[in-house]
Structures are given as C-alpha cells and as structure tokens.
Amino acid sequence: MRTPLLARVMLVPAVALVLLGTARPAEAAVHDLKATPTTVHRGFFDASLPPVLTIDSGDIVRLETSTGNPRYFEHLGVPKEKIPKELFAEYEGVDNDGRGDHTLDGPIYVTGAEPGDAIEIKILKVAVRLPIAAMSFRPTRGVLPDEFTYQKDRVFWIDMKHQTVEFAPGVKVPVKPFWGVMAVAPEASRGRVPSGPPDIFGGNLDNRDLGAGSSLFLPVQTKGGLVSIGDGHAVQGDGEVGLSAVEGSLKGEVQIILHKGMKLHGPRAETPTHYMAIGLSPDLNIAAHNATSDMVNFLATEKGLSRDDAYMLCSAAMDLIISEAVDGTKGVHAVIPKAIFSSK
C-alpha cells in the first residue's frame, strides 16, 4: 500500500486501491462479535477501554449490533412478548428507557496498529438482523426545529421478506442498511469523548454510502486502534434531517486491514464506483470546503491533473452530498466516479 497523500487529503490513492466486493479471503481468520453487556460500550469512545477482541490485520469480524432498548419499546406501548428476546439480554443492566442507538460493539484491538498508521474497515456484508426498529425527532433538534417543536417517537416493523419499511399505506421504503458509527478510539489525552458528533477518528458519520462493498479508512490515534462499530440504520436519507434514521439491529461482516505508515488526517472512504472525500465541521460551508479541497488535492497528486483542471473537473463531475446535518458537526462527502478515469 502506497503511503500518504498530502497532509489534508483523505482519499484512496489510485495505485493503492484494495479490491472491494463481498468475497471472503480464504486465508483470513474469522471472529464472531455479538452485542452483549460485556462486549459493548454506549455513547462514548475512550482509549482506556479494554478491548473485547484482538485480531490481526486482514481478519474478518462477524458482527451482530444492537439498537433498541426493550424498555424504550415498552414505553411506546409495544407488548413485551412482541419485542425480540435477544434485546432483553443485550440491554441487561441498562437503567433507562432510551433507545440506545449508540450501543457499540468493541473495542477491537488490531495487532501492530500505532499512531501514524491507518485502519481500513471494509464492509463485506451488512443486513437487518431484527424486524423491530424506531425513529424519533426532538424539540430544538433536526433541520426544522422551528416547525417541529415537540417530541415524536414511532416504532416500525420491517418486512424482512421484502426488505421494506412501510411509512403509510402505499408508502414503502426499501431498506439500505449501514452502520452509522464506525470509529477508532481517540487519543488517550482526550479522555472519554461523546459519540454524538463525528471526529478525526470517525465515529457518528451517518454516511449512507458506507454500506456493503465500501471501505472506510481511519487514522489510528492510539495503540491497537481500538475499533468500535454500531448505530445500525435500516435506512436513512442523506442529511438525516429529522435527527434519526430508521434505527435497528444489524448483522454483517467486516474485514479490518492495517495500513502501516498511511498517515491520514481524518476519515476517507471509497465505494465500488466512487472515490470519496469527507469534510467535517460545525459549519456546513467549511465542511463542504474541506471535502472539495481534499478532492482537488487527490486529483492533482494522484491523477496528475493541474490544480486548475482538478478544480474544474470537480465542478463538472463531482457531487457534494450532505451526509449529516443534525449532529453538531456537519458531514459533507464529495464523490467522483471512478469510471471517468482511464485505466491506463
């Protein structure tokens, strides 16, 4: 794997692409990590957390993540017998009736990972695990706080056969599952960091394009990386404008790959069809600036364009997408199709 792009570039170098797709490498060790009271942490990241699993670079982790505190569903009137029994075990000991969206599997220790390296989380498979899910909005939150000044929660039952969510008679949305939170631990000096806003180490990116077949690259902040994954989304629109996706429990497989010496300064990603630059900032304009600047740098340093031509190409062929508009730190990702570049 080729080393670092320029200081602020957060894109996958053309000569350093890792093959995507869903095939499991035959030589990779496979580990199971299910959500239990002893394998999750909720609502924060912390480099002092002991790992619940230790793996080598290239290993596969089969995940089951949990979203849906039974007390939350019971509070909304769901009969106890209708709530999947797995959730009662997974939320044992939780002393509140919050939904528990940021119930995160991990941390996962990656042997040999140190600051100055990067960890790639390659999403091989991801699917809805349980049929129960929920959405909500809250006063003073979301994109329309002036119009929705009250609280609303709603339970959804996912049609597991047809993989759809019915919002109203005649209105069915196909599921497109992904994990909203994928992160490494922050630097130890930062202590316990809330999982709400995304950060240099990843976290609550809520990027719907990071589903099966995609890869997320994160800069290692502490020894072992300490990867955490959760916040299952059955489906979400870009921006997550009402504060919540259709939040539910997922299952899937990820391959975690260590890239020694790949010095990143924030998260980056790619999908099977696009290169992606990720811009983060409390100011949406700055987030858009950062994503665009990173894409220009990528085109100049990795595709050989002049910066002038790279900027023009961005205006002609790049899309800016608001991945997250409601979590304090805004997320904008810039995507440009791989198909426009010659393979020569």
Walk me through the structure.
The chain contains 4 helices and 20 strands. By secondary structure, it is mostly beta strands. The protein has 2 domains: 28-266, Acetamidase/Formamidase-like domains (Jelly Rolls, Sandwich), CATH 2.60.120.580; 270-338, Roll (Endonuclease I-creI). A hairpin with a 5-residue loop joins strand 19 (319-324) and strand 20. It starts with 29 loop residues before the first strand and ends in a 7-residue tail after the last strand.
The top level CATH class name of the largest domain? Mainly Beta
Q: Which class do the helix and strand fractions yield? A: mainly beta
Radius of gyration: 20 Å
> What is the oligomeric state here?
single chain
Number of domains: 2
- For the terminal residues, how far apart are their CA atoms? 19 Å
- The number of distinct helices, counting runs of at least 4 residues, comes to 4
Q: State the share of residues found in helices, binned by percent.
A: 10-25%
Tell me, briefly, the overall form.
globular
* Low-confidence runs: 1-24
How much of the sequence lies in strands comes to 35-45%
Supply database-style keywords:
344 residues, Endonuclease I-creI, Jelly Rolls
